[in-house]
Amino acid sequence: MFSPLNDTALDQLFRTARTYNAFSGEIDDATLHRLYDLLKFGPTAANACPARFVFVKSAEAKAKLAPALDAGNRDKTLAAPVTVIVGYDMAFYDKLPVLFPHTDARSWFAGKPEAALETVALRNGSLQGAYLILAARSLGLDTGPMSGFDNAKVDEAFFAGTAIRSNFLVNLGKGDTSSIFPRSPRLGFDEACLIA
Amino acid sequence: MFSPLNDTALDQLFRTARTYNAFSGEIDDATLHRLYDLLKFGPTAANACPARFVFVKSAEAKAKLAPALDAGNRDKTLAAPVTVIVGYDMAFYDKLPVLFPHTDARSWFAGKPEAALETVALRNGSLQGAYLILAARSLGLDTGPMSGFDNAKVDEAFFAGTAIRSNFLVNLGKGDTSSIFPRSPRLGFDEACLIA
């Protein structure tokens, strides 16, 4: 009834894919467009698509990002071909008349308390960040996602005057296999799952 | 340099995949194990793996879930072969001595204010929810993720006495193509992205 992808694809997406610490290669703008043209189709609540993406590629943009990075993440991030700032727009609901046109979905969110909006934006913006990671892998790119940075500094440097907030960062490129350690363990099925 | 998956795979994961409202088929427990054995490899901060998954399959479990569902989501969810409750464990850091054994990562989180822990758990638990959606698609399953339910009621019915909180739900099965409308629009590259 169901048609799984082949083992090569399952490996590339999940089983042998790794978080790399060093990257080589160049990523042209056409590849970044292909990446967005895949990830954009991933589902979000009310199709709100709250994520926003800055592809940090130029020396100038890397220099703006550098002071916000934790020391342990700085050198590897500055050396990566591209670093994506995955953010989310707290005013995401202003796009709903276009994104969810068959009803007034904007009114479900506009005027809600900031904490409730943040939960929706963080949940769905993080889903889209994961779509970015797996879309990159599906295009043959390796990824290095990380949370080790100062969100307020990134927001000030890249999102001042907007309602966009940084969520996490993802380095992109061709992963250097000498930059990784053996994979850390995962929870067993019975530790993380229940069939009820 | 990079090897993309073929068009069939990119379609199955992103381009022609849809959020379905009606499902058929049966999903055996072995398939749920295969699903977890893919999604578990997706990256999370400090490999913390905060997501927890309840696969609601039995009539008894569906009856426990029913009162928490919004009216518009109730019938389709009760009729789906499996509904996954994607949750996250607020005490996720207690697993870090196993999951991130090379340093004392537990001390990075234990005792932090609840709001900060919630951000980490929601961010990374949502990433894992997206890995579940794409792992399901990679196994040929269709998905129906949704936020339209009462989180507090689900937590009371399924997670009482634990530190686990519900995040969102995902119906699984063989999608009925007559249950969907034309796909809603997505933001253009320049509305959602910036190359800097």
From TrEMBL, chains A, B:
<dbReference type="InterPro" id="IPR000415">
    <property type="entry name" value="Nitroreductase-like"/>
</dbReference>
<keyword id="KW-0285">Flavoprotein</keyword>
<protein>
    <recommendedName>
        <fullName>Putative NADH dehydrogenase/NAD(P)H nitroreductase ACFQ0E_18065</fullName>
        <ecNumber>1.-.-.-</ecNumber>
    </recommendedName>
</protein>
<keyword id="KW-0520">NAD</keyword>
<keyword id="KW-0288">FMN</keyword>
<dbReference type="InterPro" id="IPR029479">
    <property type="entry name" value="Nitroreductase"/>
</dbReference>
<dbReference type="InterPro" id="IPR050461">
    <property type="entry name" value="Nitroreductase_HadB/RutE"/>
</dbReference>
<dbReference type="GO" id="GO:0035527">
    <property type="term" value="F:3-hydroxypropionate dehydrogenase (NADP+) activity"/>
</dbReference>
<feature type="domain" description="Nitroreductase">
    <location>
        <begin position="15"/>
        <end position="158"/>
    </location>
</feature>
<keyword id="KW-0560">Oxidoreductase</keyword>
<dbReference type="Pfam" id="PF00881">
    <property type="entry name" value="Nitroreductase"/>
</dbReference>
<keyword id="KW-0521">NADP</keyword>
<comment type="similarity">
    <text>Belongs to the nitroreductase family. HadB/RutE subfamily.</text>
</comment>
<dbReference type="InterPro" id="IPR023936">
    <property type="entry name" value="RutE-like"/>
</dbReference>
